[in-house]
Amino acid sequence: MSAKPNVFIAQSGGPSAVINNSLRGVIDFCHEHPETFGRVYGGWHGIEGALKEELLDLSAQDPKEIALLETTPAAGAIGTCRYKLKEKQREDFERVIEVFKAHRIGFFFYIGGNDSMDTANKISKLAAERGLDLVATGVPKTIDNDVGDAEFKLVDHTPGYGSTARYWACNILAANEENAGSSPADPVLVLQAMGRKIGFIPAAARLADPRRELPLQIYMTEAGLNLEQMADLVNDELKRSGRCIVVVSEGLDVGDIGAQKDAFGHTHFGASDQTVQQVVVSYLNRKGLAATGKARGQVPGTDQRHSIVLASTVDLKEAYESGRKAAEIAMRDGNGYMATILREPGPGYKVRYDKVPLELMANSERFFPKGWIAPNKIDVTDEFLAYARPLIGDEWVRVPLENGLPRFARLKPLFVEKKCPAFVPEAYRKKG
User: Fold this and answer.
1) What is the pTM of this model?
2) How many whole angstroms separate alpha carbon 255 and alpha carbon 266?
3) Over the stretch 266-275, which tens digit does the pLDDT of each residue have?
4) What are the DSSP calls for 115-148, one per residue?
5) Is 354 a catalytic residue?
6) Closest to 40 in 3D by CA, of 63, 18, 17, 12
7) Catalytic-labelled residue, pool 28, 92, 144, 186
C-alpha cells in the first residue's frame, strides 16, 4: 500500500489562550485516521515554516507533550507569524508548492483569522494549477471575534474570543476593587482593550457587571464618541459616584498616535509611539475632573490573549472540537473549507460544528453590531450579554503544575530533513 499524504499545520497572526488546543484537535484526529493521513508536520512560525522548509515533526513527539497542548497558551509550541503572501510575491507561492511537493504534503491546515483563510485559499488554487493534490482547510482563530458575517449565520464566534472576554470580565472585577479603594487619589481608571477598531473585546467588560451597578463606561470605536464627549460623560459619572472605570478600545479615534501597521496591513497599536490610554488620561487630567485626584491608566498587554488561568473552559473545548472538525472536513469533504461554530436556536447554549467555503472567509471582517451598542453609546445591550455570557464558561481551567508552576508542552526540535535549496522569503530580501 502506498504511503498516505502528509499533513502540514501552521498558525498565523496573534495567538490566543486556546490556539494550541485547536492544534491538538487536528493532530489527534489525523493520528486516529492513519488510513487517510500520513505524518503530521508543524510549520515553524506559520507559513514561514513552508518558505524556509522548517517542518517540525509532530508525529515524532511524545504523546504526553501533545496532550499538554490543551492548556499551553499562545503559540510557543510551533510558532506563529504575521507574514502575508501577497499577490505580487509569486516566488513565495511557488516556493510553498515546491516544499509541499518535496515532502508529499497532501493536507494543509491553517489556524488563523480572515487573512489566514485568504492564504489557504490562494495556496489551494495554485496547488491545483501546479498538479499538486492538496486539501487546504481553515481552522478559525481570533480573539477579536471579527471573522465571519454580520448576521452570525456563517460563524457565530471564533475560538479565542471567549477566553479574552473572560479575561476582561475578571480584570474589571479586580480593577473595580482597585478603583474603589484608591478613588480619593485616583478617581478615574482608564483601561485599554485590544481589538483594533472592532468592539467585541471592550464590550466584554460589561460581563463583569450585567446589572450595571459599577461606575463603568465602555468606549468602542463603533460608537463614534470623541475625547470632549468622553470628558463630559466621565465627569457626569464622577458627580454621581465619585469614581469611574473607563474601558477604551485601542482603536478609538484620539488623533495621531504614531500607529504602525503589520504585514497584514492591520494597525498594530502595540507598536505605536503612544497609546490611546495615555492620550485619554492626559486629556482628562488637562480638562479637569469633577473630583479630587487624577486619572490614571493601564494597558493590559499580550496577557489579554495568553492568560490560560483566566481562559474559558467553553472556549478550550470549542477550540479543540474546531480542530477536529477541520480534519474531519478535510477527510470527508475535501478541499476549500473552514471549520465553523454555529449556535443552535432555542433555550440554553448549544453549538454545532460545520463548514463554510474558504472563499467566503478570505479577508472577511465583522464589526460589532450597531444594535448592540446602548443608546448612551458607552454601554452594550442585554442582547450582547446574552450572546457573550455562555462563551466565558462557569469553571476554572485546570492547568497541570510542576514545582508550583504551570507545566506547558515541551515539544522537541525534531525537524524534517530539508530537501529543497535554501530560500529567503521575498518580503525579507534587501532592496537595491
Assistant:
1) 0.93
2) 17
3) 444 554 568 9
4) HHHHHHHHHHHHHHHTT---EEEEEE--TT--SS
5) no
6) 63
7) 144
